[in-house]
Amino acid sequence: MGRTSQQIGGGNAMLYFIFSVVCISAAQGFSQFGFQHTVNPTLRTPHAPAARFQHAQNSHMRGFRRTLRTHNGITCQESGSGHVESAAPAIKMPSPSLPHPSSTPVPTNMDEAVRVFWEHPTPRIVGVALTVMAACRVSLGPFGPEDLVATVAMAVLWIFQEWALHRYLLHSESDNIGSRIHKDHHKVEYFHVCIDSIPLSVGWTAAATVIFMVLLPLPPTLGLSCLFAYMCMGLHYEWSHYLAHTKAVPSTWLWKQSKAAHTKHHLTDDSLWYCFTLPVMDDVFNTSGEKTKVE
To answer: How many CB atoms lie within 10 A of CB 142?
Structure first.
């Protein structure tokens, strides 16, 4: 049997959506290297390379030091007497493709926070993708009760996924790329501009697109509704996490709760307070500091 016009339209909508995301990502990717790839000077590292260089350059100690080579992560230097000594281990800079602190000044109020957030390419890409997806979904026909069910289901899915990934992957005792990146995130000063990189955001979106539009046996309309709701939750998470690391005072109860919980997660106990979207869920999952104290 041939496909119905709705199925054909849904397939075209998916292709248009993926094509739009790829094109926007390629166009915006160039701006990424000029925005988010300067390491924040407040990194908690005892010997930043620039500081070591400046110290050696301005040193009033006798002799001089000249960097000879780096071997197995140890920078060897030579003093004026010709004696070779080892300095602090060479610091490996974070990969440009991974999220890390920016040199952008930390926003101190909500207006600055909104401006800096939307100046970053990642939220713009997700925002445009959501617009394209919404247009595709509207073009496929009216909304029904199943779309509302899909929206609620995606919100619940995201809350559980958010907690589980934060708890069992990012804070895992095993050595994996997620836990390594997250450990670096916990080492930097709490207040900094932190937004996920373009590759991570686009990769996550592409994976969700394949799952909801290809792998799951969903009608195109329902698949788009699920994908749209899922990505909205992702954008809300991105904003909530970014806002929690700024000096701005949130204007809503939910964001205030999210910021307070995440601040305690970083500065009090990183084995508690894993939720962002709905912080009260830490009580449900028994990872709230208050509930732990009672027990």
So the answer is: 7
With beta carbons less than 8 A apart as the criterion, state whether 77 and 89 touch.
no
Q: How far is CA 223 from the centre of its chain?
A: 25
Token pair for residue 256?
A: 């205030």
DSSP structural state of residue 100: -
Q: Which residue has the tokens 């709705």?
A: 6
Give the C-alpha distances (Å, rounded to integers) separating 26 from 31, 44, 93, 198.
10, 33, 24, 10
Contact criterion met (CB below 8 Å) for 125 and 66? no
What pLDDT digit, counting tens, does each position of 156-198 carry?
Answer: 999 999 999 999 999 999 999 999 999 999 999 999 999 999 9
Question: pTM of the prediction?
Answer: 0.70
Closest to 261 in 3D by CA, of 287, 232, 292, 234? 287
Strand-pair partners of 67? 77
Say how far apart CA 8 and CA 2 lie, in whole Å: 10
User: Cβ contacts of residue 224 below 8 Å, gap of 6+?
Assistant: 10, 13, 14, 17, 133, 136, 137, 140, 212, 213
DSSP string, 45-65: -SS-HHHHHHHHHH--SSS--
